[in-house]
Amino acid sequence: MSAPRQIRVNAFDMNCPTHLVAGTWRHPDSQASRYKDLGYWTDLARLCERGLLDGIFIADVLGVYDVYAGSNAGALRGGAQVPVNDPALVVPAMAAVTEHLGFGITASTSFEHPYTFARRMSTLDHLTKGRVGWNIVTSYLESGARNIGLDGQVRHDNRYDIADEYMEVLYKLWEGSWEDDAVVADVARNVYTDPDKVHPIEHDGEYFKVPGIHLSEPSPQRTPLLYQAGQSSRGKTFAAEHAEAVFMGAPRAEILRGNVDDLRGRLVDAGRAAEDIRVFSSFSVIVAPTASEAEEKRDYYRGLIDPEGTLVLWSGWLGYDLAPYALDEPLRHVPNEAMQSTAETFGGGRWTVRDFVEELGFGADGPNATGDPAAVADQIEDWIDSTGADGINLNHVVTQESYVDFVELVVPELQRRGRYRTAYEEGTLRDKFFGRGSRLPDTHQAARHRRDPAGALA
Ligand SMILES: Cc1cc2nc3c(=O)[nH]c(=O)nc-3n(C[C@H](O)[C@H](O)[C@H](O)COP(=O)(O)O)c2cc1C
């Protein structure tokens, strides 16, 4: 009988006042308004490393939620993912106060050119000594597309086609442009880098032309650990081709189980192993030393939930306006180019606006566990074992209180049950995830762009 799966945990946050739970920024102990202070992030990083979490994963959007009632006013009132600062810029400070914690940042393949993005990620991989990951998104907010001069959102599946070529450019830059020993720093010969060991990538594709060399010398992981979070059929194909970790959200275990099994099957079809990917499920926790205290806390939090802010977020995720809906009116799916899997999950007439505010109010499309440490640990174990996921993406209900409670009350309980690490593994983020070194395995398509010791393309 195989040992029970060690449960992995990422703290899921965003560089803004309200991430997934609208209204709780008003909690008297909320740190939400400190998102623009480095201290918020260094405090969070120290806390998560003390709790032996896998990492801090920072969501991001380039655009504003202006679907609800056809305006961005609700988003601004609720601080719902606006104002929002750049997730990458808080990583070096967090890396400076930690040793093992990983940092996953979200960045879109639909906005920044891969040539400049490649250097930013290599820089972060250098500065964190190989502890950075990238959540690859194609972006679902129309407002973002309009603000970079497009007439509207690029079609859903075409965004993934562009992302495929985007990845190809990056693999060529990260894996193939500089040989491992290109930098010689030879004072006597006055040579810093051997020009014969740095190669232009000569990429000339349908969407991108990048003839030259990568600007950065090889970083510890070269390619940052690759996260992704799309559950549509096209999204899962993309994940099977590229991702090492996938975030999935589902309100029911059977929905998630189906997506996890489908994804692992697609990895095998893509020539990879089913276990070559770590699946993190959206999840929120409300915990206290006793069940009654936890319920009291939940009821207090529930009183803070802002229905308008909640529907602002869901209108953005679904891609259509929820303002006209009555509380118990079943949703009718409106075809659009936003989050396809989310629209498919919630568009079938089973769900209502009330469900978003009441049942799912504590964290987008994932479950909430409330109770004393043992009860919460039970629910997390059940969810992991019944869905086949490897871990949870723990979003905060109130920041940073939700993370403090988890680290102090739930981590020791999971450790006592042998389901959670008691010390960090050595090495880079990728090494900690898979235990087979810092580089992508040869079964990953990025390896096609590497050079052999003689400098020839593999
Ligand atoms: C847990 C989770 C986190 C996500 N974080 C982000 C994010 O930070 N920024 C973003 O643009 N999209 C984010 N997404 C949305 C995905 O990138 C994607 O648009 C969505 O899952 C729909 O994919 P699909 O259209 O392939 O179904 C997230 C999705 C999930 C499930």
SSE inventory with pairings:
Elements lengths: L7 E7 L23 H13 L4 E5 L13 H6 L12 H6 L5 E7 L5 H14 L4 E6 L4 H6 L8 H21 L6 E4 L4 E3 L9 E2 L4 E2 L14 E4 L4 H10 L2 E4 L4 H17 L8 E10 L3 H14 L2 H12 L21 H7 L6 H5 L10 E4 L1 H15 L3 E5 L5 H16 L12 H6 L24
Parallel strand pairs: 1-2, 1-13, 2-3, 3-4, 4-9, 9-10, 10-11, 11-12, 11-13
Antiparallel strand pairs: 5-6, 7-8
Helix pairs in contact: 4-6, 6-7, 7-8, 13-14
How would you describe this structure to a colleague?
This protein is of the alpha/beta class and 458 residues long. It has 2 domains: 8-305 and 367-449, Alpha-Beta Barrel (TIM Barrel); 307-360, no CATH class. The protein is built from 15 helices and 13 strands. The chain has helices at residues 38-50, 73-78, 91-96, 114-127, 142-147, 156-176, 233-242, 253-269, 291-304, 307-318, 340-346, 353-357, 373-387, 401-416, 429-434, and strands spanning 8-14, 55-59, 102-108, 132-137, 183-186, 191-193, 203-204, 209-210, 225-228, 245-248, 278-287, 368-371, 391-395. It has an 8-stranded parallel β-barrel with strand order 1-2-3-4-9-10-11-13, surrounded by 6 helices. Strands 5-6 form a two-stranded antiparallel ribbon. Helix 1 (38-50) links the parallel strand 1 and strand 2 (55-59). Helix 13 packs across helix 14. The protein is globular. The two termini are 40 Å apart. The mean pLDDT is 95.
